[in-house]
Structure formats: C-alpha cells, structure tokens
C-alpha cells in the first residue's frame, strides 16, 4: 500500500515550497496530495487516509486547529500523523495544537531539509 502525504496551505508559495521539499519521497512511492483550505483537507483525509498531514493553522473556511480536532476526535483517525504549520510560535498555540491532537508543531519559516527528515521518519522510510 502506498504511503500518502497531504500538504494543506492556503498560500500557493508555501504549497510549492513544501512539494519541492518532499518531492524526493515520490522516489519511495509516496504520493503527495495538496489542499488549499480546511474543508478540502478534511475531504481528502476522509477519502485518501494520508499517513502524514502538514496542516497550516491560519486558513479560510476551517483553520488547522479545527481540522485537526475533527480528524483526531470526531473521526478518531489516530493513525493520521498531523504536523501543524504556523507562523505563530507562542506557547499558547503549541498548547492548543496539543489539545486538538496534533502530533507535532512546526513554526514557519521552516527548513525544507527538516521537513523532509521528519517526513521520512514518520513514514518509516530510510533517512538519507
């Protein structure tokens, strides 16, 4: 079964940056999926069941905290590893991320190499 990674961000430049950072995962058979808002992300998570989700916090329609809360507590998809991405690095936000069930919290700007290393680790792929 192929592993899937979903990148969710309403900022096109971030989506492109994330896809570029993770494109080498495709060599390991990982499928990269993208969504531009929380509602779209939720639909993809329910239909595709990605192994890993990079979820922006500040988005229209539904923010990352809300999406994470639905995935972890309503749908009970504990196997979906969610990493919240945000420009806000305050403790309050980290606590809120933890409360809604996020597995990890990354503050923007992030280093593409770190994003790739974390992805390989979460997906149990050999780290280069």
List keywords for this structure.
128 residues; alpha/beta; Rossmann fold; 5-stranded parallel beta sheet; 5 helices
From the 3D structure, determine the CATH topology: Rossmann fold
Q: What oligomeric state best describes the polypeptide chains here?
A: single chain
The ordered H/E elements are EHEHEHEHEH
Residue runs with pLDDT of under 50 for 5 or more positions: none
Question: So how many helices?
Answer: 5
Helix content: 40-55%
Summing up helix and strand content along with how strands pair, one would put the structural category as alpha/beta
Largest sheet: 5 strands, parallel
The number of distinct structural domains comes to 1
Question: If strands are numbered along the chain, what order do they take across the biggest sheet?
Answer: 2-1-3-4-5
Going by CATH, the homologous superfamily would be Response regulator
Distance between the termini: 22 Å
